[in-house]
Design brief:
With 527 residues, the chain is an alpha/beta fold. Helices cover 26% and strands 18% of the residues. The strands form four sheets. Strands 1, 2, 3, 4, 5, 8, 9, 13 and 14 form a nine-stranded mixed beta sheet that branches. It has a five-stranded parallel beta sheet with strand order 16-15-17-18-19, covered by helices on one side. Helix 8 links the parallel strand 11 and strand 12. Helix 10 packs across helix 13. The longest helix is centred in the last third of the chain and has 19 residues. It starts with 5 loop residues before the first helix and ends in a 6-residue tail after the last helix.
Amino acid sequence: MQLYNSKTIQHALHYFLFTPYGIHDPSIFNLIEYNLSHGDDGNNIHSTPGFPNRKQQIDAAHPNKPSGRGGQQDEDGTFNTFPIYHQDYTEGFHSNAHCIGNNFQENAWKFQSCHFQNLCFDTKQEKFVLFTSQEQMDLERALGHENLTHFSPASSMNTTVSIGPLNPKWGQEHLLLRWYPELRPVDDELKRRGYYMLQTDKVLVPFHSMAGFNPGHLVWDDFLAIYKLLTSFDLLEKEMVIIRYGLSLPMWASCQRQWKRCEPILKKFLPLIGTELAKTSTQNSTLLNVLHHGDDVLKPKYVCSPNGAAGMGLLSDHGFKLHGWQPSDYEYAFNIGQGGTIYQFRNWMMTNIGIEPKNNVGKEIYKAPYRILFSEGSSSNRNRRVSFKQHSQLLQDRLGQKYELDIRIVKLSSMSLKEQIELTTGTSIFITVCGGGAVTAMFLPKGASLLAYFNEMDGDKETPARLDWDLLNNMGYIRVHWLPRPTSGRLTRRGRGMPGPQSHDFEAFVRLVDHELDIISHLKDYE
């Protein structure tokens, strides 16, 4: 299979080396080297056999593709527990890509997301692969013309994305997240052995977790990014085949360096996105089990998915910023107008874990007794560990005669995820300290209230640290309130004592809860 002559290669090299954006995808060079090594004399462009017309290519590309709903053949094995089906190679088989988010700048890879058709995984070399068509290579060759400028097709494969959400603390090391599947022409092995195909109701998703040991980071940075990625390409109804992608240099706070901390959190929370830890792996630990039907069966090394998706750089809840540690984090909001998306994300996770989103588990929050939930010990950080016993007693003493109250102090981390969500969906007012432990509050029902405590000197340069304010303040289905000084006896990072709550803090706290209960008790009046 020959695609390039020497003049074309010169044009391609000129494009990749001298365009303002530089080399996007080194695997383009791999294709060029492949064609040179297979006998191109530099004077002829040899046509690729087996491409009669476009309709025949499309019709031939996916013979007997398993549907996932009964299928057209018995499964031939499993890939990370998911059924796979052997497919013979047929002329016309290739991959496609559709990428969105291009900002036409050098950092476009941080913004972009891509949907792939026939995203394949090489189980021997442990690499993700796209097989290029003749048309794809013709397009890339045309784009390599030295006089062609500002020509940006969404289906070009000369591009890159971020394999995971960006962590601003990683500095220049975050460049390791820049990624794209390796581009390959159809090789002899694919032609001889064929490939295994996942069902059409599956989507292959490679991603790198930012800090999966922290529930807040896991849900709001990783899971929310995956949700946005899938909804961008209308893939949400498909079952995910997740590959946890490891980088050549393990990043600070990543699961590559914190696996012992990540493993129990992933095991507990992955059901929120419809999967479980046993169905995931890294790219270096995939499990291919094949049911051999004879000694002469040649085992293909490729596992392909009809659909794949990647690119999560700026799909997390914080974008380029930190979560509220620095004064600059408050200069702009990243989640404006995302309230509906966040609510649908909440409902999707509840459905995945088997809870009806609009069912408050038998408890309507506008009816007495009004559940007030204090989340105790929600953070491993000493400055954010609060008992709330004084606060709960104060509410009972001051408001217990006015309202029928169901006040509970719980340690949510000791409960199963389903128990946490069921308890929260029937809660009128949720009180906690900001941080990763506050993630359960997103399962509050419409009309409920969240009171988030923060330390006013815990941020950089002893500034207020309203962690995750950007996401929480844009949850349009609940009212979010911020309260300083949750407890006494805490120190700043510089060792200075932070002020604790005073009598006026407690008075404002009681008045706020009273006001919120008044609103909640009349919710039905406004429907």
